[in-house]
Amino acid sequence: MRPSKVIRNMKTVTLTLAKSPELYIEGQNITPDQFAGKKAAEIASLDVWEGKLKGPLGNYFTVEGDGGATAAETKIVLRGDCTRVKRIGQQMTAGEIVVEGNADMYIGGWMKGGKIHVKGNVDSFCGIGMEGGELIIDGDAGHHLGSSPRGEWRGMQGGLIRVAGNAGNDTATFINGGTIIIGGDADIHISTHGEGGTVIIKGDAKGRVGGQMVKGNIYVYGTIENPLPGFKMVGEVEQEVDGETARFAHHIGDLGERHPVSKGKTVYANLYTRI
Q: What is the residue range of 262's domain?
């Protein structure tokens, strides 16, 4: 993936948590797109929700700095404990967000561009429906990372998600494109119903990897506790993955699914396990 473009005229808006919510803050307005072109006072007046109650962002955060002229020229830094702040960066198209700690659910959901860097852990449903951009998580991620929203069949379609730690269950359900890299272990259900994209697991996978998967790639560097019978080993390959060359056992599947045919050949999903 290409490195992020350097924006020379970027302005920084710093949000510092001043009042911890009793419930959870729905922070979908915390995006460079919403902050662009606004002064600090205007940003503080943007709506957020705590449960059923709507109020201004400034009720919870102090706001320092003005937004840039465009989303691409706007950087947001969040300070304080954001474990009760949801939807940061939701649907953002450009710019940058840095969370200097933990964050809650739906971080980077449906994002189309820009970069989010969380320097702690995130909860579930982060990067769902993602179409582009980068989501970097220094800690662990919860369940349904890069998956489809509940009731929908479109998961991650593009972009990059990189988790330094572990991920919960149901990563990359209905993935169609993009790349997810997990530095640690992953729980059950990886790329279920996958139709594209790449998932790289540097640690172990608990099981049910690639169930009902039609296309796409999965790399597992550690062990798979409960491998599915729908994948068949067809050989060994040497590949460069995430900047590292390694040798893998190559499996194709899920053989229990219908697969497309291209140029007279059946297209399968690929599961690579490191040798």
A: 139-275
